[in-house]
Amino acid sequence: MDDKVEFQELFLAQLDSVHHYALLLARNTSEADDLLQETLLRAFRGFHSFKRELSFKVWVFKIMKNTHIDRARRLRVRPVEEEWQGDDEQRKDPSREVALYPVPLNPEEILLRRVTIEQVTEAITNLPPVLREVVELREMEGLSYQQIAEILGKPIGTIMSRLYRGRTLVRSVLEGPASAGFKSRSAYGL
Amino acid sequence: MVCSDARSRVFQYLDQEPPEEQWSALESHLTTCRDCRRLVDGERRFRELYMAPLRPDPAPQHVRDQIARLLDALPDRPAAVARSPWTLRRRLVAGLALFALGTLLGAGLGGFFGGERPWHRGNAPLMRLADASVEQHQKLARGILPPDIQHVAPKAAEQWFKARLNFNVSLPELRGEDLTLLGGRVSHLRDLEVAALHYQVDGKDVSLFIMPLDKYASLGLSDSPKFKLVTRQGYDVIVWASHGAAYSLVSEIGGRSCLVCHSREEKLDLPTDSRAHDKL
Q1: Which one of A42, A120, B90, B240 has the fewest beta carbons within 10 angstroms of its own beta carbon?
Q2: How far apart are CA A157 and CA A176, in angstroms?
Q3: pLDDT by residue (tens digit) across B85-100?
Q4: Are A99 and A169 in contact, with CB atoms under 8 Å apart?
């Protein structure tokens, strides 16, 4: 199979995921479309260096992340990463999270409340962007901690910390009073 | 292992990613601690009910179509689009040469397009619009944004846009042999939906973006001068509003880009000030 055909097949097979990630990174749909197209061209340009034993999805996500950062620099806007004022470095050990964020982890409470899938989706969507990114890469794309760390270029401890915090925030919102009014980002104290 | 440690590892445990050395201690704790076991079971049930169904939405059809077109248009081998060291070197040399030329011209002539004018100094909305226009122009010219319609007459393009945009797009007839309407598409200047037209004038790429007047007005640009002329990233950008719409024209050929709308016979003594262009 020649490179072009192989690339076409691999890219189309991952299109939904790649498009979803573009929407996650970009600020609007037109920017997401542009990011998707530029990523495709960059990926094809570098396809000769793609190691076939690795995950094509992870490889393309990594290219998209770098493309997004380059575009943000070009357009002189802050990439999502820079909007995060969290102190990841202090939270590489997730066990410290318990003391730092004593949010009750009580899935039974959420189950009893019979929240809807839409409410869960909304709670994830309302997360601060860097937490949302990690939560979605794990929950929706099923990527491992190591794969997420590769894509984001962060230590695995940072990924674990963000994932823990993102998940805990989602659950705390769903456990909130009747889950009626979903908290805005400011309500998270962020 | 104590309960607080075990609880901090519940997510990792269910992700099957706890550190190897803690796995057995965690399992052992969960077999003896009823409360922690209950927590794990509840979390597992929560995931089955709420997380497992979460999947990315399918990409919309227009995105699938765009990607399919782009994939079809790829060369047969990735190397064909790879940037060779020679290409990079050539770009660097060309860039430096252009920079030097621009500096010389700018310093010597005060450059009509290159110079800062009092009315656009610090005019952030204009600069943002110009930057967005330049970015879209580059993509159109390089084929990164493929046209939705190609080589059609202006009237046919008007009809095409009419079916897709909620404002009227009125295009000038082509009046010169060296003027070609290469294609058009619906595009965006930041969040502004626009009609994007890709022309060639004397073999040079020219982009014309047309936007509704009310959206343009919301950008907060001043009315005067009518024709706002700026240079951004080496491109000449002319922005103006007229007859219920607003326009942004991008090129590397300064006032000659106005041939998109005006014939060569018309006097294009562009423009030492905005009033000169008002006559066109």
Answers
A1: B90
A2: 28
A3: 444 445 555 555 655 5
A4: no
